Amino acid sequence: MLKLLKYLKYTWWQVLIAIAFVATQAYFQLELPRKMGEMTNLVLQGAETIEILKIGAYMGGVSIIVIVCAVSGALLNSFIATTFGKNIRADIFKSVSTYSLTEFEKIGTASLMTRTTNDVAQLQMAVFMGIRIMIMAPIIFTIAVSNTLRSNAILTLVFAAAIPLVIIVLAIPFIIAYPLFDKIQKKIDRATLVLRENLTGVRVIRAFNQQRAEAKRYDEANRDMTGTMMKVNRTMSFINPGINIIFNLTYLGIYFLGFASLDGKPFDDPSNFVNFGTIMTTAQYSINVMNSIVMFAFIFIMLPRARASANRIREVLEMKPSINDPTEPKHAGKTEGKIEFRNVTFQFKDADRATLKNINFVSKPGQVTAIIGSTGSGKSSIINLIPRFYDVSDGAVLIDDVDVRDYTQAELRSKIGFVPQQALLFSGSIADNLRYGNSNAQEQDMWEALDVAQAMKFVQRNEQQLSFDVSQGGKNFSGGQKQRLSIARALVKKPEIYIFDDAFSALDFKTDIKLRRALKDYVKKATVIIVAQRVSTIIDADNILVLHEGSVAAQGKHKDLLRNCKIYREIVYSQLDPEEIDKTMELSQQVLSNEGVD
Amino acid sequence: MAAPRGRMMGTIEKPRDFKKTMRRLLADFRPMMFKLAIVALIAIISVLFSILSPLYIRDILNSVARTPENFFTLTLEGLIVVDWIALIQRFAIVLAFYASAAFLNWLAEWLVIPIAAGYSYNMRKKFQAKIDTLPLNYFDSQTYGEILSKGTNDIDTIARSMQQIITQVIHSIFLFIGAIIAMFASSWQLALVAMASLPLTIGFTVLIAKRSRKHFKVYHKKLGVLNSHIEENYGGFKIVKLFNKEPEAIEKFNKINADMAKDDRYAQFFSGVIYPTIHFVNNLTFVGICVVGGLINDIGNMVAFFVLISLFQMPFQQIGQIANIIQSSAAAAERVFSVFDEKEVTPNPTDALVDISRMTGEVRFEDVWFSYKEDAPLIEAMNLDIRPGESVAIVGPTGAGKTTIVNLILRFYEVNKGKITIDGVDIRNYSYEALRNAIGMVLQDTWLFSGSIKDNIRYGRVGASDEEIIEAAKAAHAHFFITTLPGGYDFVLNEEGTNISQGQRQLLTIARAILSQPKILILDEATSSVDTRTETVIQEAMNKLMQNRTSFVIAHRLSTIKNAKTILVMRHGKIIETGNHEQLLALNGFYADLYNAQFSGSNPLAPLDIEA
Fold first, then answer.
1. What is the pTM for the complete model shown?
2. Contact A82/B105, CB-based, under 8 Å?
3. Which of A220, A304, B335, B577 is least enclosed, having the fewest CB within 10 Å?
């Protein structure tokens, strides 16, 4: 956690001045009880009005100094803390931008978000309060105690007795309650879970008449949670009264000891009467001292939570991306988009088995390469290797005869137009989203891409057309529409390589065919890779890779595979009746040879 | 995502009808009035002790100052001798006051703890029970998250504040009043000085609170913008990388971040400046008491007043906090009460039929009209006549009304006009339990709960024996994979249901439905992202389930449709064509179109995306 404090260096002189303000404030705050003691002695010895008023004026001035220091301190503290937070957030975001898929999956998107916002906010709050308390409490303590030592040394005994008592009263309940805090969270989560299940499963519960059972299930969780909560509250109930009584006893003790210490002292020593005032000052000090101890203890309570946040943030900042640019990047001789997988093996770090084994194939420009296989066969992994979302464990992936690891990531990705399985659109206009592919795209280019992606009709339907706003998460479009927009975005980029990761799954067969037909003309000599579940999508590809448990079971054209590859046959027949297959082939041929099917 | 804790002037939401809500909340406490009265009594006595203590110390100090001979004597050498007994006696009384006050305070809180806990326990119980009686269209009007938040976060807010409010409010009010009385009874001059601090404190607090709230609002808005940007970039990082948009994303982030930090600074400052300001007023009051105490030559009361003022200011400063807590509790309570006040489903008629053992499963729809929303008519004048054991396939594009038929048969929604009968009896004449016992359901959404596989399957029929459960699992072709799991039937499903695959979940729901031995079956065939082998198994299980049962199938598989006795083709909530497969093809209408587009490419998974 201390490592993160280095972010304070950006505001180091503000920190110094803030500390100065705090110290000044502490000093002057303690002047008030001291002057009160002085005044008491004066009054007891019969003082003049003017002297009382003089002391009063001084104390008034002191009060003003205190608040000036406090407000200035608050100004500085807020600046320091928010700047601290701002800088950490910026660094976190930058750090995350360099991550590859592995790092993202290690921490998880939701956790990353929490760390960027909530955890930073926790730390920021800790810094804001910490500066004040960590400086002020010790200073107040030191000044008060040293003043007391000078004036009435014996009274410091009271402080010495009180401090360990406070620590005990605070520590014991917290130590007992600490493990319960964790438990409570779990029990709250459990009760919430059951309630949530009752909501999401309301149809099933009623359909199976399980209301009574569910009520019992919830009651168990409810009872459990309430019981633990009561335990925690009961344990903590001792703290406030405990601290209160120690405060009061300290106050009382100072008076008592102050008078008791007169025992055996010579009567005519004038300093005895001076003591009355200082006893009162010390009694008043005791309040400040006790407060500062409690404040300090409070920090220790906040510390674990702040430290937890700090650790989470550090993990993000210190995580080194596993995919980096080469020190001496190469460029391709030609820019055709030929993809070659040379003996590629890929295995996840903690996995027992390799996801991909000895993958060999070549995708030539102008060709469509299809990859098909059951769930978990490794299809997505293959195409994730091309833009270097992961790196191969053995073998190589080459684009235009250059290993993908020898390109800079920026250049590599500029060659690829990737349409992922789940269409992700950003908030902004349709045009903004399309321009994501190419920031210089003109309206004409965008309409062309939309037309090919079979998206022109529904975009034109809205009045704002290209300026129509996409809401966050693309909620104002259907799944199929989102997918087509996502495809259009890749098309606008006009890259040498197109990769479609099951990108046609939300389209019905007719649209699928029309799209691929328009695509053929649009991409011309580019390399196209399609991953699909649906046989009808890939049935007419130039080369089909049949993936099975991480290896290429066979590759070739549809007719040959149907004859020679058992796995391919299984997949095909599970989707189409035999008579349907021929029909599908016919249909595709018709469409692709422009005889039309509308 | 909330603003960090410790900021007092955060987003305090205002309840819509504060008085009404507060009255209702308080009414809930009426049964506990007696206990609360005792707590109040305890609080009053503790306040008494708290106030007497400084007054007594004042008396001791005055004694020492004016009549020191009560405590000290002189030796012959002129040394002071302390009269220990007298001293200790006096101080011991104050000690006793302190101890009593502390004990009573603790006791009051101790007594309130079970009261508050019981209150929140009951509220939660009531909430969950209410959910069981709400008509299904209530769940359409809000997201699950919103409803869940009311049942958890909102009730939590109320529970936590209950504890605090009860103990603090009673104590603070009495302390405040008691301190004022004590002050005026001791020295009216000093009391006036103390009173002067009130308007100052109020004035400053209100002033600062206003500015603070303003800045907080702006800060929150900008925080929202930042969060959206982060969410999009983290959630869509693949896209960001693929299009090389990292530098732009960082630039945009830094801009939003810097912008937000500015308002964050103001908001933080204003929330942090409240305490010093109040402290300033306290200091001024201190100075005032000092000076006036000195001028009227009353050191004893001066000392007493230092304590009395802190006793008197404490509740006053807490009022701000408590006001906020009360406000947010009231707002939360409003939301919870709104759920309690919702209309419930029609209860079972008193003469409801409960015996379904002789049900044959003949289902009729007679002139049924239904719509979810008034202005969006869905089912109009539907008539259906299904004989026992027949299977009916329902086909049509998304939104055509297919699941609606299911909702009506199970009486999740009531028909607007007309009636649905089973074996000639209107389903409204059956009890809900009987009706739903008779109908088995396998939905697309595979809902299972976090419990063991055995318990999940047993959900189909309460009291089913282990053997029957295994039989059902075997019939559903689930037995095999269950036995490969650690613990077998005792294997516990986790929250998100991710420790078994989607296909396996589907098989379990089928087993559950088989166990329920329904007379009528409702089946939604959509299976999502399942591999070929599992899909075949699921199909076999579904076929077995449909044998000899009246089945309503929302069909996605060619074989189901071809084998159905009747196919209902739905579009825009209406049945536009009926017949079996061959008859419909011959019609060469919508069904034929659909078939050619959809099934000659045979993707069972894709929802139809026709620009219909």
1. 0.76
2. no
3. A304
